[in-house]
Amino acid sequence: MKVDTFFKNFELLTDAPNAIVKLREIILQLSVCGKLSQQADDECASILVSEAQKKLAKLIDEKKYRNFEKVLPVKLDEQPYKIPQNWKWVRIGEIALVRGGKRLPQGASFAIIPTPYIYIQVTNMKNGTIVNDGLKYIDEDVYQAIKNYIIEKEDLYISIAGTIGQVGEVPDFYHQMNLTENAARIIFKELNKKYFLTALNSNIVQSQFKEKTNQQAQPKLALKRIADAIIPLPPLAEQKRIVEKCDRLLSTCDEIEKRQQQRQESIVRMNESAIAQLLSSQNPDEFRQHWQRICNNFDLLYSIPETIPKLRQAILQLAVQGKLVRQNISDECGSDTPPRLLINDKTLRVSFPNLVDKRFFNLYNNSLIARKYYAGQGTGTSNSMKNITREQIRNLPVPLPPLAEQKRIVEKCDRLMSLCDTLEAKLKQGRDSSEKLMEVAAKQVLTA
Fold it and tell me: What is the DSSP string of 374-391?
């Protein structure tokens, strides 16, 4: 499948679970293998590497940074896939300097009150950018000891402990802040920053970071390992074209994801409203009106799996409210004999008189009415370990219809629950089919 064909049919693939996440991954993969934009007669990326190294060497000569990490050229058998002729496989250490942060001196502590000197202790990423989090203030004497370990807005930030391998841009707010020992800065020249960030966040590079992370009690990614990782480098003009195409496609992903989320939220709200109206019906005519509205919009209301549990609960509610089957005045009255019998301190066995169908009681026991009763009666120090007593179960109020109606309710409920199972299976099958279609399409476009 051609790339253009794949993206023209973009939205046909979005019904698969996590479809947008997978589409974003595909976009990044296409970005770093030369298949996202039209190739042009650009100068070879080898020239770009030479220019980048000259600029970095000048910074080293000016004593701004230590010398380059020593890295070997990428061998042919190390290249994971074929790239366009004017691209080049390079190690990060060939085109960038990787410099770490500095831990606080032994015995030093953070300042109690705000100071002009800020230390980035813990940071998080969001949408490829460091978020304002984990900032600590330090005193001037501590600052003097670590002032050479800073990060600048022109750099890229990489986490080397905790969320290892996370790479992001540095906002202006963080310019020249002191950097923690759990992170590093990637200093580069002559590269398109957004392409470099895209390449560093692609699967081909992230998988290398994971492989190169030590497996000690507190895993860490060494700076030398970052410099050794390889990336595919296109010419500078091609980097710009890739970024522009990537931005457009990712923006499309955002729009599709937003529409999907809005549609799902709308369906859930409509379903909840329809169910609430049905359950609150005051007479048979009102009930039939609300039920008919659900029937008329059934394909929409139950087009996503998330609404099926609400339907199941509604069926149980209707069953115990006497609204699921027609009433028959010739039926004998229900029994007022309570359920009974004790097994152990965590389990109760409940037996019933002849006028009670245990299946009906089971339906009621699983309804929201009964669950709320138990939640209110339960005692204990933890929500997950609350207990109810035999006496509390005996006192459970049960709206008991005649035995004949109990049986009709159970039979009707079984049929409706079976329909729920069928509907759920159908929706799952549809999503599974969409997922397989996505996998096939992704494989075709990535191997074309």
Answer: HHHH-BSSSGGG-B--HH
For the record, the structure tokens of 348 come out as 């109760």
**In 3D, which of 282, 122, 97 has the Cα closest to residue 191?**
97
Position 383 scores a pLDDT of: 57
Do 232 and 35 meet the contact criterion of CB atoms below 8 Å apart? Answer: no
Averaged pLDDT in 10-residue chunks for the chain of 448 residues: 70 74 87 84 91 89 75 91 93 92 81 80 66 76 82 90 86 82 88 94 92 85 93 94 91 87 92 90 86 88 88 86 72 54 57 77 84 80 69 82 86 89 87 78 74
**Which pLDDT score, from 0 to 100, does residue 235 have?**
94
Q: Is 0.85 topped by the overall pTM?
A: no
> Could you tell me which of 263, 260, 270, 324 has the C-alpha nearest to residue 297?
270
Structure tokens at 198: 């895209």
What is the distance between the alpha carbons of residues 151 and 183, in angstroms, rounded to a whole number? Answer: 10
Choose among 424, 420, 427, 421: nearest CA to 314: 420
- Greatest Cα pair distance in the chain: 102
pLDDT tens for residues 135-167?
788 888 888 888 778 888 999 999 888 788 889
Strands (E), 22-108: 88-91, 96-100
Alpha helices, DSSP H, located in 321-402:
358-365, 368-377, 390-394
DSSP bridge partners of 67? none
DSSP assignment letter at 333: P
User: Hey, where are the domains in the chain?
Assistant: 43-234, 256-439
Backbone angles phi, psi at 230, to 5 degrees: -105, 145
Instruction: Identify the CATH assignment for 43-234 out of 3.30.310.180, 3.40.50.150, 3.30.565.10, 3.90.220.20.
Output: 3.90.220.20
Query: How high is the pLDDT of residue 343?
Result: 41
Segment 402-405 long-range contacts (CB within 8 Å, at least 24 positions apart): 402/328, 402/331, 402/332, 402/333, 402/334, 402/355, 403/331, 403/332, 403/334, 403/335, 403/354, 403/355, 403/356, 403/357, 404/328, 404/331, 404/332, 405/322, 405/325, 405/327, 405/328, 405/331
